[in-house]
Structure formats: C-alpha cells, structure tokens
Write a structure and sequence with these properties.
Blueprint: E1 4-8, H1 12-28, E2 32-37, H2 41-49, E3 53-56, H3 66-83, E4 87-91, H4 93-106, E5 111-115, H5 120-123, H6 131-148, E6 153-157, H7 160-168, E7 177-179, E8 205-209, H8 218-230, E9 236-240, H9 253-262, E10 266-267, H10 274-277, E11 283-286, H11 295-302, E12 306-310, H12 315-318, E13 325-328, H13 333-345, H14 347-364, H15 367-382
Parallel strand pairs: 1-2, 1-4, 2-3, 4-5, 5-6, 6-7, 8-9, 8-11, 9-10, 11-12, 12-13
Helix pairs in contact: 1-15, 3-4, 4-6, 8-13, 11-14
Length: about 400
Amino acid sequence: MARRLLIVVQEALFFTTHRLPVGRAMQRRGWTVHVAAPADPAIAARLQAEGFVFHPIPLTRSRQNPLAEFRLLLVLLGLFLRLRPQLVHLVSIKPVVWGGLAARLAVLPGVVHAITGLGYVFIQSEDRADVQTGLLRRLIERLYRLALGYGRSIAIFQNPDDLAVFEARRLVRPDRWVMIKGCGVDMQVFANHAEPSVDAANPPVVMFPARLLGDKGVREFVAAAEILRAEGAVARFVLVGRRDPDNKTDIGAEQLQRWIDSGVVEYWGFADDMPAMLPRAHIIVLPSYREGLPRGLIEAAAIGRAIVTTDAPGCREVVRHEENGLLVPVGDGKATADAIRRLLEDVPLRHRLAARSRAIAVAEFSVEQFVAASLATYDRVLQMRGESL
C-alpha cells in the first residue's frame, strides 16, 4: 500500500500556488498525497484530476470562535485517525496549532510545521497591542509550544527574524527547525521579461501585486501614489489582488471604491495568470509590515523587475537595498513615494536593479531548490525516533 502524505493548508488556492510542486514530487516517489483545506469545489476537482485526494475542513482563517476552533481540532483529529498518514505537513497558523495538537493526540509518525509568517497578533508590537490582542498572543504561544513540542516533528521557518521570535519565546527546540526561504517559483514559467516600452500614451506602470490588506501596505502604496500624482508624476499606479474579508486588516469594499473613484489608482482585480500580469509592470511595490517570505516578491524578481518594499522580515530576504530594489521603513508612505520616484526618474538604475533581481531569483529561489529542501525535511522527520519535549 502506498504511503500517505497529508498537507493541511488554510486555503485550497494556497496549495496550488505554493505547495503543488512538492505534492507532485511526493506522488513521483509513490506516495498518495491528501490535501485538507476549506471547501473549494473548483480547486478540489482540479486536484482530484491530478490524483490528489481532497478533504474539506471547517477552517476560518481569522475568526476566533472557540466552538469553531474546537470543531476544527476535532475534525482534524478524526481525519488523522481515519487516514493514519505516515507524514503530515501543516502550513500556517491554524493548521500548525490545531493540526499539531491533533497530531500529538493521534500519535502520528511524522509532522512538518511550516511557519509562513507570524500573523496579526505578532505583527502588533507589545506596547501597542490592546489587552485582547495581548491575551490572544499568550494563548497562541502556549498552543505553539504544545504543537511544536511533539517529538516527531520539525518546523520550517522562512526567515531568521521569525525563527528568532520563536527561539526567544521558547516555542521551538534548537534542534527541531530548518530554514527554507520561500516556496520557490518556476523560472521557466516566470521567465525574464524586458520592460514594456514607454511613450506618451503608455506611461510606466507601478504595480502592487498582493491581497488588499492593511498589513500588506496597500494604504502606504495609495498614499505614495497620491503624493506622486500631486507632484505631476507620469505613471499608472495599479492594484492587482483580491480583498480578504476574513482578514482583520482587509481594507473593505467602500475604501477600495473610494480609491478607484479618486482616479489615483487603478484596480485590475485578481489575476489568475501572474506570469502574464507581472511583466506589464515597470516597478513592483509591496510596502508590507511583515512577511514569512512573500512569493509575490520572488515572482517579481524572477521576471526581472526593480522592487520597492519594506525593510521588514521576509521582504528583505528577497530584496537587497540598492542591489535589486529599494527598501523603505514600514508604514512610511512618503518614503515609499520617494523610492518610486527615484526609479521612475532613473531608468538606468531601474534596469540595473531589475537585472540583478532575475539573477538573485535564479540563484536562490528556484522551485527545484524548494522541492529538494522540502523532501529533505520530510526524510529527516521520517527518520526521527519520536522524542518529546
């Protein structure tokens, strides 16, 4: 009988965009690969056509309803007991926390936790967090400690800053983590593209390619566009992404419409085909507050674009200041505007940074490197003897 890998993700789409190559690699190894995520019939059908087994689970990403969270724990425990997978890969906060606890209760042979970012409660600084956020942070820390303390498990981190937080708070053991920077992209799919030509009818395109969240820096992007428009900058400022109402920092439909009506930015909607969308831009901008390691920046680097992003965890792993982009302070629309202006006005600089972006992407963030590192982590977990903290 084929061995079973179960990958639990917070959204079915994230499996197809971030983990599909690993799933396919495990299929080639002879494993049956199961995917658990909130119900998504279209993606479930696509995965089943490729031989994956899809399991819908009642996961809501941002709402903290105790009964709903307990139900998710029970559903995951039941799934683990029924499938008895040899290996479980838990991706992002809720799968890691509740799946990690369920894995301990089910005494599974091997568990991989993917820490893809710290989330809202950790992004808020200690001195600015309200009482509710502080209590929630302490609860999540306790849950992380229980989940990651399972002896037959290992945690994947995407950047050293997140690892430092977990080590400082004693949430992960020193010998039970591995660093895999990002999920990698296919350098043939995200091929190198020259910038589109610029003329009076076709000004440069400055693109924000991400979910429309406050934590992604969408407000700073719009603020920068307003500053540059007021100065007479000739450029198109474009939002490409979807809203995420389940996220606490979602901007809301009314705010988005106000921005569109103002004429300061254009909204091109959600793009299913980012390899075709990104080459339409001349500059990519992501003023995010904190990331695990954003795939969007890897994709932007892969197609060969100069990038403006924040000097924040995750972002600075892809973009090196003055090497393949410009780093700005978190939450600073004026600094974001200054960096964009510089790249609009200095075309040779923009092209130099763009060329270096492609080189960095190929050298450090290819999908082949990501798959190899992931499979090596799976092998390491399967060889563990199951010591508990």
